[in-house]
Amino acid sequence: MKKIFQRYYTNLFLTDRLFTALGFCVLLFILKFFFKWLGDIPEIVTGLVFLLFLLDVVILYRNKKGVEAHRITSKRLSNGDDNPIQIELKNQYGFGVKLHVIDEVPFQFQLRDKDFKLQLQSGSIKSIHYNLRPTKRGEYDFGFIRVYTGSPIGLVNRRYNFDGAKVLPVFPSFINLGQYELMAISHHLTEFGIKKIRKVGQSVEFDQIKNYVGGDDIRTINWKATARKGGLMVNTYTDERSQNVYCIIDKSRVMRMPFESLSLLDYAINASVALLKVAMLKQDKAGLITLSETIGSVILAERKPAQLGHIMQVLYKEKTRYLESNMEALYSTIRSVIKQRSLVVFFTNFESLSALQRQLPYLKKISKYHLLVVVFFENTELKSLSIEPAKDVEGIYHKTIAEKFIYEKKQMALELNKYGILSILTSPQKLTINVINQYLALKAQQRI
């Protein structure tokens, strides 16, 4: 009996309307001291309020499940993207109700405003839609959906609790992968800012025989077909397929820096997943290596259907470290693991030219055996600071130092290019687009 009473009591909440009514009753009792003609009116009004209170409680608790609610989400959330969340509500009372819905979102979002107010007619169904944007990978615990239900009388609210203790994992960004896949297949990647460069292949993979046109390589003339047709015919070839594309992700302290709530490591992980997805669509093999003071995960390049899912499972658990990356261990791993010439995209960051000089000997060795692309980041905070006009002497100092660091970043790119190492200096927001553009350009130029 005590448990039943406690269950009803803990979910019963008094409303402002009830306190207003009780305040009015108190006012009537005070006025009765001065105006005797009020007689029994205060007692009658108070009794009426009490009866309405009991009636409100009865009609709200008469149905065991007067309101139903459940949260509709995907099985996992996409890091750095807006993930749609839906709450579906159904009124099973015989009258319309006023609802105050509070969704207890995971603490990582630090949100206290996911509450909604709506009216729901008898037997009707409504849905609430909103988005959540996680900025860290890991497990996110959702709490209850708290639904405070009020009858037309409106003196009390009954609370319902639904969908408690739901845990969703946050994986590297995957929401846009389907769009990249669709655009890649339909050759409309330019809609995402991705340029497609067309060039006739010169590899050993035969494509077709076609009529000669001005500009075709005369070395590809097919003399037998020319004799049969009576006009010049040439062989055309497609780009070589099934090349290895490896993403190497630096997990050292230089990748901890945040931009728009996401760390550089998360930007690199999201870009790697998108790049490897496009590479597999282009019939290439996708592989992964993670690096910090030691070698982390190593996934050999494959093109099997489960490869991308395996890569995402590995990247889901990766975290930044506090030490510098071990480039000697990386070079040894690449020489022992990657047996044929491959495209190696190295995601890292350099804050100074001296930091690049320490790693440059190993980068030069890697570039001897593979097509190496080094990806590092612009400091967008410094860039915005250099654009703003200086207002005082201190502002001039800050602006000058910011311009010095920006210039040094450009010097790093020139230093890499001097040794034949391709580089991408990009803002974190444009990382994915720029990396895929570079891959498609190299593919079209038959560099891989």
Automatic annotation (TrEMBL):
TM helices/strands, residue ranges: 12-35, 41-61
Pfam families: DUF58 (PF01882)
Swiss-Prot/TrEMBL keywords: Membrane, Transmembrane, Transmembrane helix
Domain DUF58: 209-357
Entry protein name: DUF58 domain-containing protein
Organism: Pedobacter mendelii
